[in-house]
C-alpha cells in the first residue's frame, strides 16, 4: 500500500472511530449527572487531537469535516451541524496553535481542555447566529465549566491513546 492509500485509509478509520464515539456518547445520559443542556463527553475530541498529532493539518481537517457532516446527517439536524462545525473548527484551531508547546509548557490534558473550551465558545457563537440573540452568551460560563471537566477527562484519554499509538508504525 503506498503512502497516499495509507493516509486515506487512516483518515477513513479515524472518521469511523469518531462517528462510533459520537454514537456511544449519545448513549450516556450525561444530563442526568450534569444538569446542563447540551453537555457532552466530547469523546470525538480524542480522535481530533490524535489526528492533529499524527496527520497533516489538511487531513485532520478532513476527518473533522467528514465526521461532523456524517454525524449530523445520521444523528442530528442542520442546527446540530452548525453547532458541531463552529465548535469543532474553533477547537481544532486552538489545539493546533497549542500543540507546538506540547510537553514544554502545556500537556495533552491542557490542550484538550483548551479545545473543549474553544468548542463551547464556537457553539455559543453558532447559537447566537441561529437564535439572533446575544443573550445566549449568558450560558457560556456553565458550558465552560462543564467543558473544562470534560476536556480534562478526554485529555487523559487522549494522552493514553496517543502515547500507546505513537509506538505503532502506520
Which descriptors would you attach to this protein?
76% helix; 7 helices; 170 residues
Class based on secondary structure composition and strand pairing: mainly alpha
Low-confidence segments, given as residue ranges, are: none
What is the overall pLDDT average?
88
Please give the share of residues in helix: over 70%
Strand-residue proportion? under 5%
Largest sheet: none
Q: Could you tell me the number of beta strands? A: 0
Q: Secondary-structure element sequence?
A: HHHHHHH
Note the gap between the termini.
Answer: 11 Å
Q: Output the radius of gyration.
A: 16 Å
Oligomer: single chain
Approximate shape = globular
Enumerate how many helices there are, as a single number.
7
What does this protein look like?
- With 170 residues, this protein is mainly alpha-helical.
- The chain is 76% helix and 0% strand.
- The protein has 7 helices and no strands.
- Helix 5 packs antiparallel against helix 6.
- It is globular, with a radius of gyration of 16 Å.
- The model has no long low-confidence stretch (mean pLDDT 88).
Amino acid at each position: 500500500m503506498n503512502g497516499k492509500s495509507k493516509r486515506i485509509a487512516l483518515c477513513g478509520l479515524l472518521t469511523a472511530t469518531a462517528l462510533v464515539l459520537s454514537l456511544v456518547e449519545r448513549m450516556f445520559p450525561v444530563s442526568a449527572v450534569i444538569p446542563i443542556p447540551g453537555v457532552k463527553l466530547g469523546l470525538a475530541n480524542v480522535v481530533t487531537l490524535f489526528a492533529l498529532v499524527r496527520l497533516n493539518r489538511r487531513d485532520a481537517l478532513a476527518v473533522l469535516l467528514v465526521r461532523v457532516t456524517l454525524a449530523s446527517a445520521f444523528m442530528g439536524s442542520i442546527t446540530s451541524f452548525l453547532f458541531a462545525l463552529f465548535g469543532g473548527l474553533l477547537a481544532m484551531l486552538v489545539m493546533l496553535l497549542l500543540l507546538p508547546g506540547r510537553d514544554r509548557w502545556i500537556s495533552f490534558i491542557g490542550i484538550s481542555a483548551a479545545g473543549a473550551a474553544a468548542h463551547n465558545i464556537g457553539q455559543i457563537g453558532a447559537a447566537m447566529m441561529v437564535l439572533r440573540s446575544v443573550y445566549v452568551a449568558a450560558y457560556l460560563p456553565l458550558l465552560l465549566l462543564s467543558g473544562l471537566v470534560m476536556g480534562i477527562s478526554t485529555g487523559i484519554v487522549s494522552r493514553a491513546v496517543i502515547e500507546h499509538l505513537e509506538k505503532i508504525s502506520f
